[in-house]
Amino acid sequence: MPQAGSPSGIAGWSAGGLRRGLSYVLPFAVVGGLWQIASLFFPPFLFPSLVDVFKRCVDILLTWSQFSDVLATVGRILAGLAGAFLVGAALAVIMARSRAVNDFLSPILTLFQGIPALSWVVFAIIWFHGIEPRIFFIMVMTTLPAFTFQVLGALQGMSRDLMEMVMSFRPTRAKLFRTMIIPAILPDILTAWKVNLGNASRVVVVAELVGATGGVGYELLQQQQVFDMAGALAWTLQLVFFVLIAQAVLTFVESVAFRYRAVSERSL
Amino acid sequence: MSAAAPIISLKQVSKSFNKSGTAPAYIAVDRLDLQVGQGQLLALLGKTGCGKSTIFNMIAGLSEPSSGTVTVDGRNPFREFDAFRGKMAIVFQSDRLLPWRTAVQNVELGLEMLDMPATPRKEAAMHWLARLGLRGHENDYPHALSGGMRQRVSIARAFATDANILLCDEPFSALDEMTGRTLRAEFVRLVKENGKTAVFVTHSINEALEIGDRIVVLKRPATIAIDLPLTAATLPAEKQAIRNQIQDILAA
């Protein structure tokens, strides 16, 4: 293994980093290359040039009226996830404490999981008047069961030995949560956020496509009506960028919050 | 058995566990009478499954007797659970360190429950880690410590709260002989120096003889088979006789 700090070590690490970077970029480069080749043989409404797509992306980012649509969608995703997480965590705590509540709520949440996102969109349009309440409702209902089950699983999977040890010091309820429960379930909570972030970014587009007058979903509908594939791709990429950035932030939080984990465990 | 007023008292204590269906209840502890005096180091000895841990949990207030009374310092440790905050500390069989906390943060845990301000809390934790030979490892996470070091941290965690009563559930049984012997000696020294009362559960006769100034041997279901006082003046030959006596009881 190369030693960091020595010239050969730095060269070794650089070569390793370069290899990892290449292996990450290569698949995108291949797909992009194939797309670019296709753009030479097909009309722009089917396969637009990547240069055009890039220009449209920059245009969205630099034009406030368009970028505000991206921010609106991001806000809706985060608000929906936060709402679902808070409600889901509260339900999970109650379910973990009471078998009767667990037996009652589990089938209902399972039923909710089986309802398609588009059905929630229809229900929201019928039940609510405002655009934002509709989208918030859709986001919460589509991610609530997953959050609840994931937090419940984390609570039920806590170490009984560690819980008994903390209890032996007679903590108050608040201290039990702060010193034991929250740190113990935090890894599962972050995983739940990562999973639900992807789901929410897909659902928000459907919600905006049908029931909004702004946002990425609404803009995608506009591009579809004028057969602007470059625009459709550019707006889609805005959401992809957001998900990638959010995932990177969560990964960073994980690396800081879970630095206690053994190296062997981290590398699994 | 003790001259001092008992700080831990079990009177006619029984504990049974219900089995599923119509099977009769399993009796783990049967009408046990046991008193532990202030400052005494009691070794509770018995074979696996004889009810040692059940007694331990009842004294710790983690479970309630089916009948009889358990009092610690005149109070019921199960019903008045919060009243024992900072008055009773437990060293478990495994170290049970919180993996997300460093060694010093683990030692601080009990002090956090007592609302001690951060600075004196950390100083106290550092002091106990140093006393247990862990200077320089304060900021290590449990995964970076050996089994012996981890158990030292758990002992430091128990002593740091300055609880008057220490309950130990076979804390050295998972360690190698040398480490276990060293830690046992340190443990006895700390208990005596700090005037603690300790109940030490073990299944090892040698450990009981090394640690206890009183040995209570249990037979199944947990009733006292023999109650033996030991002193520093107990001669090796006398200890050997006690060892043989205990072996005969356990074999029977």
Provide an overview of this structure.
The complex is a heterodimer of chains A (268) and B (252). Chain A has 268 residues and is mainly α. Chain A has two domains: 1-41; 50-266, MetI-like fold, CATH 1.10.3720. Chain A is 84% helix and 0% strand. Chain A is built from eleven helices and no strands. Chain A has helices at residues 7-41, 50-62, 64-97, 99-114, 117-127, 131-156, 160-167, 173-211, 216-225, 229-257, 263-266. In chain A, α9 runs antiparallel to α10 (229-257). The longest helix of chain A is centred in the last third of the chain and has 39 residues, at 173-211. Mean pLDDT of chain A is 88; it is low at 1-5. Chain B is α/β, with parallel strands linked by helices. Chain B has a domain at 97-162. Helix content of chain B is 35%, strand content 25%. Chain B has helices at 52-60, 103-113, 118-131, 147-160, 177-193, 205-211, 236-251; strands at residues 6-17, 26-37, 41-45, 67-72, 88-91, 165-169, 197-202, 214-219, 223-229. In chain B, strands 5-6-7-3-8-9 form a six-stranded mixed β-sheet, sandwiched between helices. In chain B, strands 2-1-4 form a three-stranded antiparallel β-sheet, with helices on one face. Chain B is globular. The two termini of chain B are 24 Å apart. Classes of the chains: A mainly alpha (268), B alpha/beta (252). Chain A binds chain B through residues 161-162, 164-172, 175, 179-180, 183-184, 258, 260-262, 265, and chain B through 60, 62, 81-82, 84-86, 88-90, 92, 94, 96, 98-102, 109-110, 112-113, 141-144, 161.
